[in-house]
Amino acid sequence: MGIEESTEAPPPRHIGIIMDGNGRWATSRGLRRTRGHREGIEAAKRVVLAAIAERVPCLSLYAFSTENWRRAEEEVSFIMALVARNLRDQYDFYRENHVRVRHSGNLEGLPEDVQQEIAIVTEETRGNKAITVNLAVNYGGRDEIARSVSRILASRTESALLSPVTAEEIENYLDLPDLPDPDLIIRTGGEHRLSNFLLWESAYSELYFSDRLWPDWCDEDLQAAIADFKRRKRNFGGMR
Ligand code: IPE
Ligand code: IPE
Ligand code: MG
Q1: CB-CB contact of 60 with 15 (8 Å)
Q2: Domain of 210?
Q3: Is 195 in the pocket of ligand 2 (CB under 6 A)?
Q4: What domain count does the chain have?
């Protein structure tokens, strides 16, 4: 093994992606916004394959936020139908590429059929080991922290109810407590904000912003983000 190879930084253990820009991608082509969401699924598949090739074990994809309900009812119902249908239609993709699908977010707030598809796909793909893809649907970071605190309180005996809540407990009761914190969070589409994504887990994430709209993303974009990540110097509050 050459020196360069042995000193190469490891890939991120977990990447979170704020997949933004579907609407602009479509309207700039004179198409309806919904067409951009459909193209966004193709981009997600390309990026999942690129992540597997780069040996990234976990990918969180922000698909629908707790604030996205504020959009026109036509767009919201299109996205919900698209999510439900694709969870099912992509079974071959998950099987052939050994993709384990998981969900984070407020499950009960989703339409019945979406809840059902999530339950089926997470169960059916449980044994797949190439990558875990966490679909954040009806997800909000604040909502997740509130859910965690509610679970903590529900787990407590009456005598322990008023003892202080620790950061460790909050971590242990998040939606997917077994996933590592994201090493890298990517936002596509040119905006520089988190929009309520993984607020607790992103405390020490490296942030990467790309102007490219999500439906245009391909393997090279992910490779560039990972290469950039590998050059970062992380301190976690310690000394350089
Ligand atoms: C991201 O793309 C997808 C969702 C939020 C569901 P947008 O729909 O936000 O696209 P822009 O930002 O309007 O271009
Ligand atoms: C963030 O994108 C949410 C998702 C990508 C699912 P938005 O388009 O909803 O974010 P804002 O409204 O521009 O902050
Ligand atoms: Mg947007």
Answers
A1: yes
A2: 14-140+181-230
A3: yes
A4: 1
In a domain, 155, yes or no: no
Is 102 among the domain residues?
A: yes
Ligand 1 center–CA 151 separation, angstroms: 31
Whether ligand 1 lies within 6 angstroms of the CB of 135 is answered as: no
Is the Cβ atom of 66 under 6 angstroms away from ligand 2?
no
Tokens of 162: 């008023």
Of the residues 22, 68, 138, 196, which is catalytic? Answer: 68
Q: What are phi and psi of 18, to 5 degrees?
A: -90, 100
pTM of the model: 0.96
64 lines ligand 2 (CB under 6 A): yes
Tens digits of residue pLDDT in 148-167: 999 999 999 999 999 999 99
pLDDT tens digits for 159-190? 999 999 999 999 999 999 999 999 999 999 99
Answer yes or no: is 200 within a domain: yes
- Structural tokens at position 122: 């997470």
Is the distance from the beta carbon of residue 21 to the nearest atom of ligand 1 less than 6 Å?
yes
Q: Is 20 in the active site?
A: yes
Distance set, CA 197 to CA 3, 20, 108, 115, 230 (Å): 38, 12, 19, 21, 22
Secondary structure tally for the chain: helices H, strands E: 9, 6
Helix (H) or strand (E) holding 43: helix 33-53
Å from CA of 207 to ligand 3 middle = 17
Domain-located, residue 161: no
- Whether 86 is a known active-site residue: answer no
| CATH for 69 | 3.40.1180.10
Maximum Cα–Cα distance across the chain: 62
Ligand nearest to the CA of 139: 2
